[in-house]
Design a protein that fits this description.
single chain, alpha+beta, five-stranded mixed beta sheet, 18 helices, elongated
Amino acid sequence: MPKPRAARLETATARRRLGPRKKPYWTTISPGIALGYRRNAGPGTWSVRSTDGHGSDWIKRIALADDLERADGTHVLTYWQAIDAARKLARRQPGDVADDNRPLTVAEALDRYEADLKARGGDIYNAKRSRIHLPGSILSKPVALLGATELKKWRDGLAAKGLSPATINRTRTCLRAALELAAEHDKRIGNRREWRVGLRSLPDATVARNVVLDDATVRRIVAAAYDHDRALGLMVEVAATTGARPSEVARVQVADLDLADPSEPRLWIPRSGKGGSRERARKMLERRPVPIGVGLATLLREAAAGRPPDAPLLLRSSGEPWGYRRSDHYRDDIRGVVAAVGLPNTTTLYSLRHSAIVRRLLANTPVRIVADLSDTSVREIERHYARFIAEHSDAVARRGLLDITPPGAHNVLALPGRRS
């Protein structure tokens, strides 16, 4: 690629004629890329400025200019070397080795977040959810230059696209997670406050739409799943019994089937990957014991026979492990089962989770234990299942209700007569 001429910057002699000033002398070296020289008391410095075509740009210092010492190609650069360095820093070409000195853009942060999710077995759609709503002006902007005002404007603009407050909160959460991951790996990103302020969640956005099913309906769903496919039925029964999330059920391993006491079998359910990236990595390795019935344990023992401890416990009929991402097709099977039972399409595997939580609450299981079995918090239990807790607490409270009616008063009837 040809290198543009700039007589006042090409040589140390020419640059010494420039007067010192706070702002660099800029010259365009490629579309959207400018090389800057700032004259100092000592040697000057080279900087690169890159624009995204949407009114946003970033500036980064490259190296010293060869004003007082010979260029070494790394720390001290000539004008011509500075052009090459600026272009390389501003535009990473396909196949180029990643340059950690280059400011990470939002688009690249989302790429890394998606790779991180894939490596940890997470849902990669979380990285794509926010990307499809982000404009090019933000995607191409370095993470270190993001501001709270522009992020808040973007978040608030999602409502104009028809997104509900709850969906907006999920979308901005995914972007925040990507930005937090980028900041954890690059100490130069010091503007975390900007997205923590600009991407705050919308208040009162959560509307409880938990589909809770009675035990008879849950049994019908499990039976219909077995009729459709035995492997599907086993997976659905595990979900209905444990109340685990689909992603957790898919990650259960053969070694997680605990038959130490055959009369009281348990499954060690993996915890979800919620929280920051470090917390997610820690929690993904943790498991919680959840009791299951002897009949289900027998079916699981048969399914696990002859397989290694670290193999997935639940498999499809094809022998492949169950997935839980949007690219997996088991959701179509679940919809077919739900339709066969005659339930609305709002009934999903999560309905079995909600039903299991309410079943435990109504069985006098302490909320703290229910929260631990479900891998959630007491606060979330009270937030989403308050109505069921209130109904249950009313029934419990009535057991200790004081009745001050005199004995036999209920059997006394007032007879009509003359008033005195």
